[in-house]
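Quick check before the chapter quiz. The format below is the same one you will see on the exam, so make sure you can read both the input and the output lines.
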Amino acid sequence: MTATLRQTATTVANTMIEGASTASALIGGAGGAYIGYQLAPASWSEGARLAFAGAAAVVGAIAVDGLAELLLAPLRRLMRRSPLSVTRAPAPANTLSEALSQAVAATEDDAANRAASASFRIDHGDNFLRNEDRWRGYENGEASFYLAPGVWLHYRCDKDKHGYGDPRFSLLTGDGEQPVVITGVEQIRHHLAARAAGLPAVPVTADSDMADVLDDDLAGVHAV
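Here is the expected output.
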C-alpha cells in the first residue's frame, strides 16, 4: 500500500473509532436522561425532574463511554503502532529486466522496513524513527532518514563476529563533516538544536566534553 492510501485508510479507521466513542457517549446520555426522568418522583416539579434527568444523562454518558473505551483504547494503540497496510504482490515478470526492477524495488522496501524496525535501538518511541514511510531504502540494503535540510540519519547492518546482523546508525550532513555514530535519539536532538541555535553542530555522546557545554548553551532552545 502506498503512503497516501495507507494514510487515507488510517484516517478513516481513526474517524470510525472516534465516531464510535462519540456515539457511545450520546447513547449513554440519552439513556441516562430517559431513565432519570422516569425515576424522578412525580411529586417533583417539571423543572426538578428535568434537572435530575440532566444529571442522570451526564452520569450515563460517562459510564457508557468508559465501558466503550475498554474496547476502543486497544484499537487506538493498534492504529498508532501498526498503521493499516495491504500487501499486494507485483504481477509476474515477463522479462529479466522487469524481474530485476521488481527485485530492486523489493530490496529498497526491505531496507527501509529493516531500518525502521531496528531504530528501536536508539528511539523507543513509536512516532518518529519507526515510521517506515520516512525511510528511503537502497539497493545495497542501506537506508536514510531525512531529518532536516542537509541532515540525514543513515542506516546499515554489518555482520558481527558470529555472523548476526548488527544495525548501525550514523548522522550525515551536507557540511563535509565526518559521519558520527548515533546510539540514542538524544544525540539527534542535540545536533538539530545546535544547528538551530547557530552553534557547532556536533552530535554529543554521554562521555563527550561538549555535552555539558551544549546543554548550557541550548537551555531554552526548542529543537523542531
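If your answer matched, good. Confidence is low (pLDDT under 50) at residues 203-224.
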